[in-house]
Structure formats: C-alpha cells, structure tokens
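Issue 218. Parser rejects a valid record. Input:
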Amino acid sequence: MSQEYFEITKNPISADEVTDKVARREAGAITAFIGTVREFTKGKRTLHLEYQAYEPMAVKMLEQIGAEIKERWPDAITAITHRIGKLEISDIAVVIAVSSPHRKTAYEANEYAIERIKQIVPIWKKEHWEDGTMWIGDQLEQTPYPEGKPRKEGGTND
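Output the parser choked on:
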C-alpha cells in the first residue's frame, strides 16, 4: 500500500480527493465515511475540537488498517485521511473511502476501518465546551490523557 492513500493532515480534507484515490474501473461501489465535528456531545455544547497525533505512528497504523482490509476483503482498496489541529463545528475530521466490485464489501470494510482507527491509531482530542475543556484521551474514550497525550513508560511525560 502506498503511503499517499493514508494521511494525517493539518489542512481541511476534501472528501472528493480521498474518494478519487480509490476510484477505478473495476469498482461497482465506493463508500465514503465522513466524520465531522458535532456541536453536542452527551448534552454538552462543543465550541471546537483539537486533535493531536503521534504522526509517524498514526500513518503506519492507518497503513496497517489498509493492509488488514486488503487481507480480509482482497478486492477492496482503501484511502484514509485524518485531520489534526483545531477543528470547528461541522469541519471534516476524517474521511475513509473504500472501493470494491460490490457494495457489501465496501460498506463492511469502511465500517471496519473507522472501528480500527478508534482502537489503534494514536490520535487524541481535546473538547472545548462552553463550560471548559477536557482532553478526552484515546478515541474509544477509555483511557484519559489529562496532560493532553499518552503517558510515556515510567509514568511521566518528561
């Protein structure tokens, strides 16, 4: 898999550009998942989000997800772009595009990709609400990162 199919960017994402990466004559289906910043989360009004990533590892993990999809659905081609930095309400945070000869594969592989992103890609976010801010931690929201990033081995961020 070529790295250009899997990117971390600070720039706004074009869903069309990501989808164009997987377009091909053999594809009878292209699915696109477009993850955007929503205004309300668990009843709290979000003003904006801030995403950070360990970029080299994040790209490697996106590539790994692409390889997993290729192994599980050999006819599928995947492209994923995730944005970092400050994102406003309705900004696109992530685009996943999958093409395949048949729609069921494209749907399944696309859903698989977003779930795996949340499980293994080192991206974390800070929510800015009307009444304060909080580093959410990992994308499954199971491990808090109060200092804004994962703790290094040994328990410090030094």
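Fixed in the parser; the record now loads. Residues 127 and 133 are 6 Å apart (CA to CA).
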